[in-house]
Design a protein that fits this description.
Strand 11 (153-159) and strand 12 (162-164) form a beta hairpin. The chain has helices spanning 51-68, 107-115, 124-135, 194-198, 200-213, 233-239, 243-267, 283-296, 316-323; strands at 2-6, 15-21, 25-31, 37-44, 76-83, 86-88, 93-97, 102-105, 119-123, 144-149, 153-159, 162-164, 271-275, 307-310. It is an alpha/beta fold. Strands 1-4-3-2-5-9 form a 6-stranded mixed sheet. It has a 5-stranded mixed sheet with strand order 12-11-10-13-14, sandwiched between helices. The protein is globular and about 60 Å long.
Length: 326
């Protein structure tokens, strides 16, 4: 196994097991009842293989980590899995996970057969939101929306302390609310989704388009070492005083702000958390985002204050949240 970490001292029992199943890696962790991550490890997913092979590796990663900590599966009260796709928590079925090439696969039953302990599944963004609400930046807030800005735009919603998953656990797909029906094509097949404007993939596309329109923009100086555009290119340029970069960042914040404002108007949570790679820009992103939301949220100055914060747990959020699924 890879990337094993462990806290000092004796591992308390019983423990819960969280699995963050991604298109690249399967991350597993042991979590105590206080939501503390005690140990973790990861193995490659190698997406595209038969379903059973990936489940075998998930089970093997769990068994190896438990054994390395001097425990057995009898010391584990259950396993939770965060999946990058839509899940039916009632049947334990992954309905659709495009990055894994899965459709209608019985993940819960397959993993339970291999491990013999209770298994629960949910969307990975839901798990990340739950982890942040239990022990991360959203701790103490009863109603939270967590938005992950990565290859796509993921969302997890906590309402009155409970994870909101919608009918058949297929809700909270915040990246696929349309904010401009005449906008660019989204991977889901519709035009103008929030994801098509506010993901890191979208920002890369926007940066490339501007470079093509304005070859003298000076953005080339801020490309990655291998000469390619990244989600940071526009921000690096803007921080350095590049005018084109500043325009890109302002445009991106507006797109992000439209989506965040819509979500606040619908749910009026206590806090909105921003995670994913672009959240690494910190206050350079969050300060103008807060300003945009304050100016556009329904009710204006009479609306309740909504904290807009950076998610703090990183990849651990999904493991912790998955472990605490019921």
């Amino acid at each position: 196994m890879e990337q094993v970490t462990q806290t000092k001292g004796v591992t308390p029992v019983p423990v819960r097991i969280g699995v963050d199943l991604g298109g690249t890696n399967i991350a597993v962790g042991l979590v105590d009842d206080g939501c503390n991550l005690l140990a973790k490890a990861s193995v490659p997913t190698r997406a595209g293989r038969p379903f059973g092979e990936i489940v075998d590796d998930m089970a093997g990663a769990v068994q190896d980590l438990v054994k390395e900590q001097g425990l057995s599966l009898h010391d584990c009260t259950g396993v939770g899995v965060g999946v990058p796709g839509t899940c039916d928590g009632n049947t334990g079925t992954v309905c659709f996970a495009p990055n894994l090439f899965w459709k209608d696969v019985p993940l819960r039953d397959a993993l339970h057969t291999r491990l013999g302990v209770p298994v629960h599944i949910s969307n990975d963004a839901n798990c990340a939101a739950l982890g942040e609400q239990l022990t991360g930046a959203a701790k103490g807030y009863g109603s939270v929306i967590c938005i992950t800005l990565g290859t796509g735009v993921g969302g997890g919603i906590i309402l009155d302390g409970r994870l909101f998953e919608g009918n058949r656990a297929m809700g909270a797909e915040v990246g696929h609310m349309v904010i401009d029906p005449d906008g660019p094509l989204c991977g889901c097949g519709r035009h103008g989704c929030f994801e098509a404007f506010a993901s890191s993939t979208a920002l890369i596309r926007q940066t490339r388009e501007l470079m093509e329109r304005e070859p003298d923009s000076g953005l080339e100086a801020f490309l990655k070492a291998d000469g390619t555009v990244s989600g940071r290119t526009a921000f690096l340029a803007a921080r350095a005083g590049n005018e084109a970069g500043a325009r890109l960042v302002k445009q991106y914040v507006r797109y992000l702000g439209i989506g965040v404002t819509n979500l606040i108007n619908v749910f009026m949570p206590e806090a909105v958390l921003i995670g994913g790679g672009i959240s690494g820009e910190g206050e350079y992103l969050l300060t103008p985002l807060r300003r945009y939301v304050k100016e556009h949220v329904y009710g204006g100055n009479r609306a309740p204050e909504v904290a807009i914060l950076k998610a703090t747990l990183g990849n651990d959020a999904g493991i912790i949240g998955a472990a605490m699924l019921r």
